[in-house]
Amino acid sequence: MAGFAAQLTAGLEKLEIAVPAQSIDRLATYFSELKKWSKKVNLIAKSATDEEIVENHFVDSLTLLPLLAESGCHLLDIGTGAGFPGLVCKAVRPELTVTLVEPREKRVSFLGHIVRTLGLKDVTILGCRVENEDRLPASRPFTHITGRA
User: What CATH number was assigned to the domain covering residues 2-147?
Assistant: First the structure.
C-alpha cells in the first residue's frame, strides 16, 4: 500500500489538500478492499490501473474536502457506486454525516462492508433510486449534495 499512499499524497499535495496519516491508512484499506471486490463485482472499470483509480476516484473525491469544512455537514451522495465521493470524504472526515444512495444491490453490499471495515459511524446507505426514495430525512436537510456521471 506504500504505492497507494505515495500517489494519493502526491495528488493531494498538488491540490494543496492536507489529509492526516490515519486517514491515508483508512483510504489504503478502502483501496485494497475495492480491488478485491472488483474482481467479482462491477465497481470500477476492469481496465483501470491503480494509478487511474487513485487519481480519478480517490483524489477526485477529496477535492470536495475544502467545501465540507464546516461542522454539522450532512452530505447526500446520489448514485454513489463504490462510494465516490461520499464514502471517501467520510473516511477522511469522520465527523461528517453521510447518506449514500445506490440502486445496485452488490454495490450496496460493498458499501456496507467498507463502512464496517473502516468503523465509520453516521453513514446511511439507501439501496434505491433517489427519485423513488421516501426515506430521505426531510427533517434534517442536506448541506451538500453530490452525484457523479
Answer: 3.40.50.150
